[in-house]
Amino acid sequence: MTKQAELLQGTLDLLILRTLELRPLHGVGISDRIEQVTRGVFAVGPGSLFPALHRLAEEGWIEGQWTELENKRRVKVYALTKTGRTRLAVEKRNWEKVFTAMNRVLAEES
Amino acid sequence: MPWIKRLTVLYRRVFRRAEVDKELDAEVAAYFEILVERYMAQGMSREEAQRTARIKCDGPEQIKQQVRQAQMGATIEATLKDVHYAARMLRKNPGFAAVAIFSLAIGLGATSGIYSIADALLLRPLPVPKASSVIAISPVTDQVLPGLNAISYPDYVILRDHNRTFQGLVGAAYSFLGFAPDRERLPKMKYGMFVSGNFFQVLGVEPTIGRGFRSEEDLSVGRDNVVVLSHDFWVSEYDGQRSAIGETMWLNGIEFTIIGVTPESFTGIDQFLRPAFYLPFALSPRVGTADNLNQRQVRWLTVKGRLNPHVGIAQAQGDIDAITSELQRTYPKTDGNLRMKVESELQFQAEFAPPRTAFIIMLGVLAFCVLLVACTNVAGLLLSRSTARAREMAVRLAIGAGRVSLIRQLLIENLLIAIGGGAVGLGIAYAAVRLFTSIPLPSDLPLKFSAQLDGRVMLFAACASILSTFLFGLAPALITTRQDLVSALKATDAVSSKTGKPWGRNLLVAGQMALSLVLLVVSAVLVQGFRADLIRGPGFRTDHLFVMSLNPSLLRYTDAQTKQFYKHLLDKARLAPDVKSAALASAAPITIGATQIGMVPEGYQLERGQEAITIFDNVVSDGYFDIMGIPIIQGRGFVESDQLNTPTVAVVNEQLAHHYWPNQNPIGKRFHLRNETGELIEIVGIAKTTKYLSISELPLDFVYLPFAQNQQPQMTLIAESESPAATSLAPVLRQVVQEIDRDMAVFDARSMQDIYINRAVKTPTVIAEIVSTLGVMGLTLAVVGLYGLAAYSVSRRTREIGIRMALGANPLSVIKMVLKQGLVLGLAGVAVGLLLGFFACRAITSGTFFNFGHVSVLPFAAVSLLLILTTIGASYLPARRASRIDPLRALREE
Fold first, then answer.
1. Do the Cβ atoms of B5 and A60 come within 8 Å?
2. pLDDT tens for residues A52-77?
3. How far does CA B240 lie from the centroid of its chain?
């Protein structure tokens, strides 16, 4: 259980950071975007989104700012920070490593 | 930067809980609303939309809960876990923890103790609000005695009224005043302080009861007889009664009204001298002996100013410079050479008494050396543990722990050690402070030496602990976590790989040896110097003598009356029972009453801008040299026939004679008193050079002037007793004084022996004790370090030694081998230490004020020998253990 959660957590971080790399978004925007890009494979509900956002903000990788939408609604919009950008690069490399390693393992088995 | 961010996040979470929660609420609510709106746009009713949203994501409360857990988990929990783990590790190795904590306790105790002493002597800021904006203004002079670098009242008034960079400038001057609560009682000598009318207001000191001065109370001379009491004085004389306000008291026979009491926290504007009461300058002509308020050449004020906001010291200096050059032009006679410097209170205090500053710096450097040795010790321990823990770390790294988190873990362990060391160290610091405060102050002056373990010292100890954590802990932590996983996991002992030779530890131990040698050599040189000073003696006799001070000006005697009084006093004292002889001096030697005077030898070329040569002086009566046992080498001492109407004469010491008339007969030479235009005085005698201010001083230029030609109100009566117990003269002499004037107050009455023991013997003894304690601490720590290293390397080499013995090495050769290893380190340390020690001793013995002994071979040789012996001792135990290794068991151990 914990093992899986950790794995998920790592992936989620990468997903969020990558999503924010393109442009700053608020919570719903991030969920929508992830769902849209992954064609519904990852559906990130607020229950996992918010803890992840706060953790990332605490690490200093992303930064939240209260802004007003056109319809006067106030939402917190998150943006990638400078350290967040470097972090994203690291995570990307890690992911690629894991990805190729996994592929090799699978290729060997078949 | 990320750390700062982290801390602010943590701070907000702990202290701004509600705010953070509210923000989270709003954020989650906004998320919800957007979803609800979206569903409504798809055609659902509001209720339906809300329900769907709630199903889609677990309720808002759960979300918030999860967020909080994520936050907690990220920082606090991890840290707490680290602390728990660290505490467990320390408990598991009580020996290691004890030695480490003990070492650090010594180092931190020494530094904290010295810090609290430095704090009391120098560092503590003025006890006023926003002390950092209060700065000192003083004239640039070549005088070294405190109290003489002062400013005249008229100059102060001009500075006060014409500056543009200060909120206000205050002036203050100490004065001895005879205090009596009512007319009938005998006056007691108390230290009062004349202050400018704006004193309390500018310093921001609000009297706790009553009020401070109003500016107009300092305007017209002698109109408002008002006085503000210090808190201590109010408590001791008026039992802290509020009714004291409005009461009258008598100062030098003049009636005053008490208008206020200062807060307890305000102890005056000097670290030591605490005035009993404050009165406006306007009263000084009435209370004092002379009207100095219009005398531009009488410099007697300490001036402090509170800077305007956003004004720097440099800007203030420019402002003051402009005013001083104006003063130079307007009053060339008195202020032609006047220059002022504006500096922070700390700078001012540091320059105020250079010997004090030098002393503090010396102790500080020595204490820091002890801390360094202690940190080295702990670092050594950690390094040897790091090899033992190599496997643990390798395993943790292998299963995926980040290096950073491991380093954090190790640093937290070290921090626990440092906190433990700091706590125990405070106890040691307390002992150091107790020792230092035992230095007695031989005077009736209200001097308070208040070294204490207060918040500032605690803060210092905490900072030093944290600093030393990084000092000793970072390198081992880095080394422990940087290793080749595979070899560490394979080998039973990471060090068995070639790279692990404990070069670092060898270096550390040799360094410790070197530092402790420096500490010991310095303390040996100091102790030897002090001892030699004491054996040589002060150059005057201290037995059979009793001294007491008098000041008839407090009873507003005229000059003629004063002259009459002292003549009667000498005559009557010399006839009193048990009195063999008597003399007068403006100050008894090695008391704090020393004064300085300007002089210019006839025909001497002064440097540009120099007004005169400043030297120490003493105004003495006939018989002084005889009674003090100071030999007159050439010429004569003062005699009764030296009078106002006879040629003006002086006696100088050998040092001064050699200094200004080398290879000439100084008798008959003349010098100008005070400045180039001053009165010409003929030298009639040469006195042997003695000690004047302290037993450890270097030979000083000194001049004696006859009392009859240089009369002054405050004098000290010195009487020689027939019987060895000089104190038996106290009632006799008091009787003599009372017979002449029953109102005359006597102060600083004590035997010369008492003064000598307190000033000359006790002070250096305490200093020597502190320094040698530091030295012994350093040595102890170094021995522990050396022993640790030797024991460690023997345990690492068990197998090797086993093989050697199996091949026929006898126990003696094994002992020799281990001893050799220790000895090489010891010798290397001694060699480096000798070099450093030589420079350290050169530094302390080349002081301009004190003679801290001489650099001689003996202490170096003795300390080196001591160190080599302890080296052998410390490595002998492990060596013996090595020699008893059973080859069979050692080889089987693998």
1. yes
2. 888 888 778 888 888 888 778 888 89
3. 32
pLDDT range class, residue B14, cuts 50, 70, 90: low
**Identity of the residue in A51, A58, A76 whose CB atom sits nearest the CB atom of B27:** A76
Beta carbons of B339 and B140 less than 8 angstroms apart: yes
Structure-token match 């919009």, residue found: A77
Residue with tokens 């009553």: B210
Can you tell me the distance from the alpha carbon of B107 to that of B369, in angstroms, rounded to the nearest whole number? 8
Q: Helix, strand or coil for residue B589? A: coil
Q: What are the backbone angles phi and psi of residue B20, rounded to the nearest 5°? A: -60, -45
Compare CB distances from B74 to A27, A55, A83 and report the shortest one's residue: A55
Look up residue B454 and give its two tokens: 């207060």
String of DSSP letters for B664-710 = S--TT-EEEESSTTSPEEEEEEEEPP--SS-TTBPP--EEEEEGGGS
Decide: B581 and B626 in contact? Cβ < 8 Å: yes
CA distance B882 to A39: 72
Does residue B49 contact residue B36 with C-beta atoms inside 8 Å?
yes
Closest listed residue to residue B480, CA positions, set B381, B382, B374, B375: B382
Cα–Cα nearest to B784, from B470, B370, B413: B370
- Report the residue of B1, B5, B68 to disrupt the A interface, i.e. the one with the largest count of A CBs within 10 Å: B5
Q: What is the rounded CA–CA span in Å between residue B319 and residue B308? A: 12
- Please give the backbone phi and psi of residue B789, each rounded to the nearest 5 degrees, phi first: -65, -45
Spacing of C-alpha B785 from chain mean position: 30
pLDDT digits (tens, 9 = 90+) for B511-530: 888 888 888 888 888 888 88
* CA gap B100, B380 in Å, rounded: 10
Q: B35 to chain A: nearest residue by CA?
A: A28
What pairs with residue B299 in β-bridges?
A: B152
3-state secondary structure B219-279: CCCCCCCEEEECHHHHHHHHCCCHHHCCCEEEECCEEEEEEEECCCCCCCCCCCECCCEEE
- pLDDT reading at B728 higher than 70: yes
Beta partners for B547?
B718, B750
More confident residue, B73 or B179: B179
Q: How far apart are alpha carbons B491 and B483 in whole angstroms?
A: 12
**Single-letter residue type at B836:** L
Nearest to B71 among A48, A54, A60 (CB): A54
Note the pTM of the prediction, 2 decimals: 0.68
| Structural tokens at position B186 | 């005998």
- Across B20-163, the runs of DSSP E, i.e. the strands, are 134-139, 151-152
**Dihedral in degrees, nearest 10, Cα atoms A25, A29, A32, A34:** 20
Residues of B272-301 as b/e, b for ≥16 C-beta within 10 angstroms? bbbbbbbbbbbbbebbbbeebbeebebbbb
Please list every residue in chain B whose beta carbon sits closer than 8 Å to the beta carbon of residue A26.
Answer: 30-31, 34
pLDDT band at B494 (very low <50, low <70, confident <90, very high): very low
Which residues of A fall within a CB distance of 8 Å from B74?
55, 58-59
Q: What mean pLDDT value characterizes chain B?
A: 83
Residue of B129, B169, B136 whose CA lies nearest to B263:
B129
Place of tokens 């040629």: B647
Extract the tokens encoding B391.
């496997």
| CA separation, residue A5 to residues A78, B66, B82, B421, B732 (Å) | 23, 13, 22, 42, 96
